[in-house]
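Reopening this ticket.

The earlier resolution said the output was attached, but the attachment link was broken on my side. Pasting everything inline this time so it's all in one place.
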Amino acid sequence: MAGFKSSLDAIASKKWGPILGIIIAFIVGYLMLVYVSPFLCFGTLLVAFVIFFIPYYFGLKKFKWLAVWGIIFILLMPIPYAAAQVNIAYEYENRGDTASATDGTLVNGLVDPYTDSEDGVYTYTVEADPKYQVVSLKLANVYTDKEYSEYLMNKMGPTEDGSKEIWTLSFDNLKTGYYQYYFEGVYVDEEGKEQKMHTGVLIGPINDTKEGLYLQMVKSSLISMVLYVGLLYFLLMFMVYTNRKNREMFEKQRANQSRPQEGPDGTFHCPKCNSEVIKGQKFCPQCGENFAVDVKEVQMPSAPFKGADDDYFCTECGTKVDENATVCPGCGKKFE
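Inline output:
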């Protein structure tokens, strides 16, 4: 596992690492949208998480380019995603699914035909337990409807075995669209209370061409991408950006706190033990505190410096050395 991580880190350090990360993120994001998100309530959160952190891990660290990548994903993903949804919708009929209630009192619900009615008539049918006084169809056009409309069905008689009643409803003026439906039955229980039971939701009919359905899918998926994946993506980016800035600010404050202030004569006191330290020393001669002074900011002595106890120390690493030493045994610095 460690070797695999090392390989990924090596790839991330390459110039083409971010490009590979974007390609992987696009593929994984597409697969999750098509096969995972429909079955998980937090699926879009996972998609946003994946498309942000995979390129980020592979070296895409600049937030400007992360924002550009996020916008590109949101604008381009509806194209292949809509194509996949159209294929799923048209293959749905071959699965042979029927709408049924969990208790088995409403079964074999379907619409005929599923697509392309020659005479424009679409008939919904469901078999219901005789206890139901009313059975209704709940129908919604995904193109235009925000809620399901209710239509009362007609009782046509018993099934062949007499265990159920057949209820039907036909339409000959359905507007062009992509429909979803379910059935609901109403009965009165032994206590005189009205009870309801409904089936699961199914697709049908598709009263449009594949081209029309595809364009509608592109439009609706683009809106979904912006409202869900896009908002979550940029929220993640803002959180990571804020965290990075806070960390940088903290490190800067910590460095400033550990940096001793020089007096008029160039001397200062160690912030840890308060020992007097001469200008240019990077370590306290008493306690070894690192002053985090950039070597570019001060001119460091080229020979060992003398501490408070007449001991000599390396100006580079603070190692105790002999007064006449020419090389530091700790870091190898050469003295003049």
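Reporter confirms the inline version is readable. The chain has three domains: 2-76+215-247, 95-208, 265-336. Residues 293-301 have pLDDT under 50 and may be disordered.
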